[in-house]
């Protein structure tokens, strides 16, 4: 295999196979979703890479060459095999993601469950646990009927249809007000409760049968006890000296459960404890998702492999087919090598990249969840929108720059303009005769407006939620003018001559497009919006760990694979520190506020 053949793309091979099967560029274009010119260019690029002719072009039909026919035979089998491999990979990936419903008895899990849910989310970030707190009987009924995959209950004895796994045991304590004589004792005997007014959790919380049996053996009657469903109400009654409560917990739980200071927990003797169990349906195979969730809840330190527990998630705030995803996934691979542990990519889509950053700001600040933030989220969201989902200066920790990506002004192949001056002249001759795009809520939404203002032109505007559908419309002639981030798909379209670049909306010419002038060179010095992304973490991420993580990020960005990969996609690694990037964001917000009249 030659060096050139290493850069053959899967799409080029699919084009060749389709042309061989249909004998037509137009049929292939319709089947794959490309223009006929893009199909032809794809084949030419493949021929150049393989250094052999693949088709004999005639006026009526496209016929494969002898070399093309020899290639198509095994190619069909190879692509079918690849489809099976990808399908299997997708199936295996789906086994690690999904929603698991956990029904939890009232009064159970307040002290330990949040920590175990957090541990589970770190180990399996694609599994979402849906918690429902219900009466004890409803939890059991829900698991038996399948409305919940897992149940968390006090082991009072389970129906034969269910099986349980013990999670922990909790001792019972006596809770009293500080004015009560018990408050001056180091322990309270069960027998001494027979003359007290008791406050107990009712049967809906679970464990009541076992507690009653224990107290009855010490001649303590429970028929006239105050019964409540919530621990908070029990504490309020105790604080008001209505009675003494017998509840699971202890000194560590007093502050968490008491509404006010005036309550003390005293050990009960002889000791009595309850068992909290995780229940599932008996003789029913659990799905891989439920198995993983149950394993992490039963043993947060051993329910998964070491590598799974240490996984890092990189949130990419755009579609998996877009340029941001390409940069993000390349970075994730390089960062995983530096860290020596997996880095998963999670696409969180919406609000022009804002929802992805919002997801990061709401994650646990342990370094296991980081994300990409584009200028749309860091610079323009505050200027253009009123969502206020987060504040870039107080709600995130900016760890480092990631990539600088120039923005470029493109026209479709159907537009008869090879220079910016020609485009401006045509648009002035035909006001509202050209259509441009406002993409999402970032720089690609404001650049068209500023461009028209500075060039005294007027175009119709169409809104798009992302760059990919806008590029499709530009290539197909449904859109005329587009500001776009230089990225893999954009560069592919430029190289195949499906679109024409006329201006870089930045101060420097772009790598890979050295002949395309910059906005200042075109007499538009302020029609500039540098694209790109930084790496962010939650605001409370410890400063003591920021330096180490930043060093790992920069080591990944300096790797030859990243440098070469980013350059091939039209970007350059951005080694600015978090502080330097935030200073850049502040400067850009001020500059654009003045340009947009929002200063």
Compact description:
Helix content is 41%, strand content 23%.
Describe this structure in words.
This protein has 599 residues and is an alpha/beta fold. The protein folds into 4 domains: 4-94, Arc Repressor Mutant, subunit A; 99-305, D-Maltodextrin-Binding Protein, domain 2, CATH 3.40.190; 310-405 and 532-595, D-Maltodextrin-Binding Protein, domain 2, CATH 3.40.190; 407-529, Periplasmic binding protein-like II (D-Maltodextrin-Binding Protein, domain 2, 3-Layer(aba) Sandwich), CATH 3.40.190.10. It is 41% helix and 23% strand. It contains 21 helices and 23 strands. Strands 3, 4, 5, 6, 7, 8, 9, 10, 11 and 12 form a 10-stranded mixed beta sheet that branches. Helix 7 (208-216) links the parallel strand 8 (198-201) and strand 9. It is elongated. The two termini are 59 Å apart. The model is unreliable at 1-6, 251-260 and 303-309 (pLDDT under 50).
């Amino acid at each position: 295999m030659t060096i050139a053949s290493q850069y053959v793309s899967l799409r080029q091979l699919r084009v060749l196979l389709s042309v061989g099967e249909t004998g037509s560029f137009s049929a292939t274009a319709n089947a794959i979703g490309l223009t006929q010119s893009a199909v032809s260019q794809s084949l030419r690029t493949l021929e150049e890479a393989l250094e052999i002719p693949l088709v004999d072009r005639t006026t009526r039909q496209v016929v494969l060459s002898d070399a093309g026919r020899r290639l198509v035979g095994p190619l069909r089998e190879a692509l079918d095999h690849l489809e099976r491999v990808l399908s299997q990979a997708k199936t295996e990936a789906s086994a690690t993601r999904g929603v698991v419903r956990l029904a939890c008895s009232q009064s159970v899990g307040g002290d330990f469950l949040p920590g175990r849910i957090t541990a589970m989310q770190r180990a399996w970030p694609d599994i979402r646990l849906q918690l429902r707190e219900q009466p004890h009987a409803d939890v059991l009924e829900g698991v038996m009927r399948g409305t919940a995959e897992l149940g968390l209950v006090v082991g009072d004895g389970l129906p034969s249809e269910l099986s349980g796994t013990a999670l922990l045991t909790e001792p019972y304590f006596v809770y009293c007000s500080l004015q009560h004589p018990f408050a001056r004792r180091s322990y309270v005997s069960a027998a001494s409760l027979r003359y007290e007014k008791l406050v107990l959790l009712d049967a809906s919380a679970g464990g009541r049968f076992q507690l009653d049996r224990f107290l009855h053996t010490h001649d303590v009657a429970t028929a006239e006890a105050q019964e409540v469903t919530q621990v908070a109400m029990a504490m309020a009654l105790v604080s008001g000296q209505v009675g003494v409560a017998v509840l699971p917990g202890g000194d560590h739980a007093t502050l968490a459960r008491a509404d006010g200071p005036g309550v003390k927990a005293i050990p009960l003797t002889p000791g009595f404890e309850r068992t909290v169990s995780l229940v599932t349906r008996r003789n029913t195979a659990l799905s891989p998702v439920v198995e993983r969730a149950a394993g992490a809840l039963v043993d947060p330190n051993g329910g998964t492999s070491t590598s799974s527990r240490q996984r890092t998630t990189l949130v990419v705030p755009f579609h998996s087919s877009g340029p941001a995803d390409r940069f993000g996934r390349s970075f994730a691979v390089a960062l995983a090598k530096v860290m020596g542990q997996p880095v998963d990519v999670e696409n969180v889509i919406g609000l022009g990249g804002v929802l992805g950053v919002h997801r990061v700001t709401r994650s646990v600040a342990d370094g296991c969840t980081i994300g990409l933030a584009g200028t749309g989220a860091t610079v323009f969201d505050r200027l253009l929108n009123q969502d206020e989902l987060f504040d870039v200066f107080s709600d995130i920790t900016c760890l480092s720059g990631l990539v600088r990506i120039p923005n470029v002004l493109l026209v479709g192949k159907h537009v008869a303009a090879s220079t910016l001056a020609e485009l401006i002249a045509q648009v002035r001759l035909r006001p509202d005769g050209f259509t441009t795009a406002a993409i999402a809520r970032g720089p690609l939404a404001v650049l068209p407006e500023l461009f028209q203002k500075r060039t005294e032109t007027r175009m119709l505007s169409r809104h798009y939620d992302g760059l990919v559908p806008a590029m499709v419309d530009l290539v197909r002639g449904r859109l005329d003018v587009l500001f776009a981030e230089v990225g893999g798909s954009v560069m592919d379209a430029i190289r195949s001559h499906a679109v024409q670049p006329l201006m870089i909306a930045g101060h420097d010419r772009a790598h890979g497009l050295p002949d395309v002038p910059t906005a200042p060179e075109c007499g538009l010095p302020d029609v500039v919006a540098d694209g790109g992304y930084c790496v962010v973490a939650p605001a409370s991420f410890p400063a003591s760990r920021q330096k180490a993580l930043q060093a790992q990020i920069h080591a990944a960005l300096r790797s030859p694979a990243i440098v070469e990969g980013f350059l091939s996609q039209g970007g350059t690694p951005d080694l600015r520190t978090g502080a330097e990037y935030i200073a850049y964001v502040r400067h850009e917000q001020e500059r654009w506020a003045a340009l947009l009249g929002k200063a």
